[in-house]
Amino acid sequence: MANRYFENENHTKLYQKYRMTAPKALVQRVINYLKEKYSGELELAVDIGCGSGQNTYIVADYFKKVIGIDVSPNQIANAVKANERTNVEFQLGAAEKLNLPDGSVQLITAMAAVHWLDLPKFFEEGLRVLSPGGVMAVYSYFISFYEWPRDPTKNEAIKKFYEEIILEGELGQFWSEPIRKHIFTKYKNISIPYDDFTRDDTFRNERHMSLTGMLGEMQTFSGFQSLREAKGDEAAGDLLDRLKNGILEIIKDDLSPEESNLDEIYFEEKSPLFLLLARKPV
Ligand SMILES: C[S@@+](CC[C@H](N)C(=O)[O-])C[C@H]1O[C@@H](n2cnc3c(N)ncnc32)[C@H](O)[C@@H]1O
Is 140 in the pocket of ligand 1 (CB under 6 A)? Predict the structure, then answer.
């Protein structure tokens, strides 16, 4: 039975559907930081590890042109297919060797991506392509809180159960070294070696999320993908069943007998973000 989760599955499509976009307020904070010392035109931004473009489109509201760059051909193919913006381009490429002229970029962003990179090389390459006063902004999120609007007294139980599923048990051992080193620690071990380095932990993303969405998002996590590769579809499906059944058990008293469609059981998902900022010397 567990296999049914993966019948029509395509990882990059799940990604496109369930991964969160960057909060507008966070991107505005990045733009304000850039404008503190850069007064020229906002010609070009690049979004590194763009995936299917969750962050790229938000940045595109501020720039003449934004290029989303990702090393995965599947991610780029899906991003290109869905792109309807005339000032957004997607390119296959590696963060550590960008196909861009020196000093041509005012902003480099990387959402939920920098932990996968060769950081010293990426920072060096960033310095090469940024214009003087140009900014690098890297940000991510980790564990979301799912609040249950029908009875907030159950939020603590949901949080405890969800964190146990993510961090302990079967999935716990499948988080890779970069995730443990950088995401578990909220990028506290990363410092961008440019001017005015600072961090800001005040932003969070909020969205309505169905139980189907919670299960879909789980399938996009690299730890989940590793578990599925190592143990197979059945073990991966069992984990999703445990998540689904555990959550349903907590909220069961609030559901009417005819409420069985997981697409229509909604939570408020809240995801704290961590943001690092620095600029190339003016
Ligand atoms: C967790 S996803 C984040 C995607 C998107 N930015 C988001 O916020 O959902 C990380 C992305 O980084 C990409 N990536 C990993 N190593 C990379 C590299 N060296 N250069 C460019 N992209 C890379 C992966 O292919 C993947 O799409």
Answer: no
Residue with tokens 């059944």: 245
Q: Which of 3, 21, 4, 1 is nearest to 217 (CA)?
A: 21
Q: How far is the CA of 71 from the centre of ligand 1 (A)?
A: 7
Spatial CA neighbour of 268 closest among 207, 203, 191: 207
Q: Which band of pLDDT confidence, cut at 50, 70 and 90, is reported for residue 9?
A: low
Cβ count near 129 (within 10 Å)? 19
**Does the predicted model carry a pTM greater than 0.90?**
yes
Q: Give the pLDDT band (50/70/90) at residue 226.
A: very high
| DSSP annotation of 23 | P
Q: Which residues pair with 209 in a beta bridge?
A: 267
Q: Is 243 in the pocket of ligand 1 (CB under 6 A)?
A: no
User: Does the structural domain 11-142+178-205+273-279 have CATH classification 3.30.70.20?
Assistant: no
Mutate to test the pocket of ligand 1, among 11, 47, 72 (most ligand atoms within 8 A of CB): 72
CA–CA separation, 219 and 90 (whole Å): 24
Centre of ligand 1 from the C-alpha of residue 50, in Å = 6
Nearest CA to ligand 1 atom 16: 116
Mean pLDDT, rounded, for 238-261: 95
Per-position b or e across 138-168, b if 16+ CB within 10 A of its CB: bbbbbebbbbbeeeeebbeebeebbeebbee
CB of 55 sitting under 6 A from ligand 1? yes
Task: For the chain, give every domain's residue range.
Answer: 2-9+144-176+206-268, 11-142+178-205+273-279
pLDDT at 266: 97
CA 205/CA 270 separation, integer angstroms: 6
